[in-house]
Amino acid sequence: MNEYRTHKCNELGLDNIDNSVKLSGWVHRKRDHGGLLFIDLRDNFGLTQLVFDPDSESFNDAEKIRNESVIMVEGKVIRRTEDAINKNLPTGEVEVYVKKLEILSEAEDLPIPVFGEPDYPEDLRLKYRFLDLRRETLHNNIILRSEVINFIREVMKENDFLEFQTPILTASSPEGARDFLIPSRIHKGKFYALPQAPQQFKQ
User: Fold this and answer.
1) Residue by residue, what is the 3-state secondary structure of 154-167?
2) What does pTM read for this prediction?
3) Residues 55, 59, 63, 64: is their CA dihedral positive or negative?
4) Which residues share a beta bridge with 95?
5) Positive or negative: CA dihedral 144, 145, 149, 150
6) What backbone phi and psi angles, to 5 degrees, belong to 186?
7) Residue limits of the OB domain (predicted)?
8) Whole-angstrom Cα distance, residue 75 to residue 61?
9) Per-residue pLDDT tens for 39-90?
10) What was the pLDDT predicted at 181?
11) What pLDDT does residue 174 have?
């Protein structure tokens, strides 16, 4: 697919057993089960479970990495044991036995977790919005919003509508950039300004 992956994290299944694969994504969650280390790897599309054996060269690095670090792994797809199958995941019948691990970006300790749906105060969530938006509920909302907008756009296009953007006139802004001024025909000596940035209307 590209230099970082051969598959997305929602694609692997029983048809891929014994295949060598390369995956990239965020460390979503880590679990240590009596020597074996399990990592749920997350990308924009889903989750895949990774397995690290203590004899693996990558085991020590895998033990140290924190949640939300970005990694790339290479390994072999194997079948999960019957008691480990997760029917709630598209990839829940398989896991990847990791042979090689590369840390692309190491995360620091997180002020708020991404895994799960913790009920944190709104001011804390807004302060760390870049982490809050990674949580499953909000991430799914972003995807749904994109799909709805794309559906509306496609329907309008099929019905011969045109999409275009017109200039917006607004009051002058106290921000640092220079305004592009438009003189008012009704109010002599007064000016409108083209908006400098869209966030002005969200503040």
Assistant:
1) HHHHHCCCCCCCCC
2) 0.74
3) positive
4) 78
5) negative
6) -90, -45
7) 21-104
8) 15
9) 999 999 999 999 999 888 889 899 999 999 999 999 999 999 888 899 889 9
10) 75
11) 63
